[in-house]
Amino acid sequence: MSRLILTTLGLALAAAPATSLAQRTDDNATTSAEDAFGTSIGGEQIGIYNPNYVRGFSAAEAGNIRLDGLYIDQQAAFSDRLIGGLQMRVGLSAQGYPFPAPTGIAEYELRKPGAKRLLSVSGRLGPFGSKVLELDAQVPVTDRLSIGAGYGLVSDRNHTGGAAEFRTAALIARWEPVDGVEIMPFWSRVGIADEELPPLLLTAGDFLPPRLERVKRIGQKWAANDGETITAGLATTLKSGGWTLKAGAFRSILDLDRSHTQLFLNVRPDGTADEVVIAEPGRRSASTSGEVRLSRRFADGPRLHTLHFSIKGRDRARVYGGSSEIFVGNHPIEDPVDFPEPVSNFGPQTRDTVRQWTAGIAYEGRWKDVGEVSIGVQKTDYSKRVFGPDLPVITTKDAPLLLNATAALYASPSLAFYGSYTEGLEESPVAPGHAVNRDEAPPAIRTRQVDAGLRWSIVPGIRLVAGVFEVTKPFYSLDDARLFRQLGDVRHRGAEFSLSGQIAPGLTAIAGTALIDARLSGDAVDSGLVGRKPLASFGRLSTAVLDYRPTFAPALSVDLVVESTSDRVASADGKLVIPARAIASVGGRYRFRLGKAPATLRVQVANIGNKYGWANGSSGIYLYNLPRRLTATLTTDLG
C-alpha cells in the first residue's frame, strides 16, 4: 500500500503543470473555525462538540444532520470524498436556522467543484501503521458546469489492534444553467472489507477493568464486518429577487453483508472475562429523505423580514436481528484464544419502517443595530411499524405541534445577548451491541431545550461566546436483564464558553469549555436501578488549540492541542469514577513546492504523554483511550 501511495504521488507530481490553484494544501481546522464548538475540515476536527456529542447528547443519533443546510436522514457516516467541512451549530450559531433542533445541529458542507482545474493528491502514514491515499479532482466543463470526483484507498489500523480496508469514491456536479440557479447532483460510496471494530468490555461489578496492553488484538480476527455505504442525492438553490428556494432529495444506505460484535463480559480484576462474539446475518438501513424550503425576504428600512415555508420528510426501512451468540470461553483477556469461526445458525430478522412528514412556517425579523427575533411552528406526522418474527405488527404514531422561538438584542456593535426555546421530535438511541435486544430502535422521543447567552467581540478578531442551557429527554439504557428500554428522564443543565480569534500576528487561539450537570429521574432512579447521574456523564469538557505561523517564516507553522475532562461517572451510585485526565498533542505544517505545485507536509504526535485511561458508555461498556501516535500527511494541489 505504501509503495502504491509513493508511486502515485510521484507520477502525479511529475505531471504538474505550470499553474495551480491551492485547495487542500490550505486545509486547517483551527484557522477556519468560527468558534470552539466544533469544526472539521481536511480530516482534522477541533472543538468541544462533534456530531456524536453535543451538550451531553448525540446530534447524529437524534437525527439533527443537515447537508448544505437541508434535512437528511443519515444512515451511515459521510465519505470525506463528498464532504468538504463540518460545523457544529449550538446557541447563537444555531439561530440562523429557521427550524433549530434541541440537540444542536451538525451541518455538513458538500465538497463543491470550483471553476478551475485541480487535482489534489494526499498520502497519509499512521497512526498505528495505517496507510491512506486520497485523490480529489475538479474539472470545469463550461463556465457554468464543473464536475468533481474523488477516490480513496484506506488500509486502516485501530488502537485495539484491529484492521480494516476501505475504498471510497464520490462524484458531484455543480451546474448553474442561469444566474441565481445552482443544481448539484452527487453520489458517494464507501466499500467496507474485514472491518474489525474495537472490542467492548463489561465488568462484573463496580470497578474499572484492569489495565490492558494497547494496540494489541484481543478478539477474533474473523469477527469482522463487510459491506458498503452509499449517499446520493440532488441539492438545488434558486434565487430571484426576494425569493429563495432550497430543495434537496437524498438517499442514504448502510448495507452490511456480515456483521459481528466482539464482547468481553464479566471482566474481573484479575483480567479474565467471558469472551462472546455476536454474529449477525448482515443488516441494512436505507432512507429516502429531503426538504423543500421557500423563503421570502421583505426590506422595511433598517428592518428585514423573512418568511420560511418548509416541508421535509423521510421514508426509512431497516432489517436487523437474527443474531447468533458465540461463546468463545473464559480466559485472560490478554491471552487471546484462537477460536475457529463456527457455522452460525441465524434466526429470522426483524424489519421496521419509519415514515415522517413535517410542515413548518417560520418568521425571522432583523432590525439593524437593534436585534433580531424569530418564531416557528412545525406540525409533524410520525409513524413507525415493527415487523418482528412470529409477532403481531407493532405500530407507533405521534403528531405533535413543535414550537421554537429565539431572540437576540444588540447592546452595542460588539455585544449581543440571545435566548431561545426549542421543541423537537427526535430519534431515540439504538440498543447497543451487548443488549439482548441489540439494534432495536425505540420510537421517536419528544425533547425540549432552553438556552441563553451572549456574544462579545472583545477586540476586532477576538470573540467570546458564553451561554447556559437546559435539555430534557426520555432516558434509555440497559436494565438488570441487559434489556435496552426507557428507564426515566434525563436533564442536562450547563454552561458553555468559546473564545476564538487571532491573539497576536500569526497566532490563532481556540478555547472552549462545557460544564454539564446531568440528572436522571423516574421509577428506575427511585427503585435504585440507576443513580441520579447517568453512566459516562462528566461535569466538564475543555479544549484549547494554538496555531502559530510566524511572519518571519510563513512556510512553517506549529500547533498545540490540549483536551481535558473531569471525572466520568462509572457506577450507578456515582462512587466509582474514571479519573479526570488531560491529553496534549503537538504538530506542525511545512508548506513548500514540488516542482511548481504547492504542497504541505503535516505531522502530528497525539497524546504525547502516552496517558492511559478509560472511556465508557451510558450502557456500561468500557474502551481504553488512544495511546501516543504519529501521523504524517503529504498533500499537493495540481492545477
Describe this structure in words.
With 639 residues, this protein is mainly beta. The chain has four helices and 36 strands. It has a 22-stranded antiparallel β-barrel. A six-stranded mixed β-sheet has the order 2-1-5-6-3-4. The longest helix is centred in the first third of the chain and has 13 residues. The relative contact order is 0.13.
Short characterization:
The protein is mainly β.
Which key features would you list for this structure?
22-stranded antiparallel beta barrel; mainly beta; 59% strand; 639 residues; globular; Maltoporin, Chain A; single chain; 4% helix
Q: Let me know the number of strands.
A: 36
Shape: globular
Radius of gyration: 25 Å
Enter the CATH topology name. Answer: Maltoporin, Chain A
> Could you describe the largest sheet, including whether it forms a barrel?
22 strands, antiparallel, barrel
Q: State the end-to-end distance.
A: 26 Å
SS-based structural class?
mainly beta
Mean pLDDT comes to 91
Total number of helices: 4
CATH homologous superfamily grouping: TonB-dependent receptor, beta-barrel domain
CATH architecture: Beta Barrel
Tally of discrete structural domains: 1
Helix content: under 10%
Q: Under the CATH scheme, which class?
A: Mainly Beta
| Low-pLDDT ranges | 1-22
Percent strand: over 45%
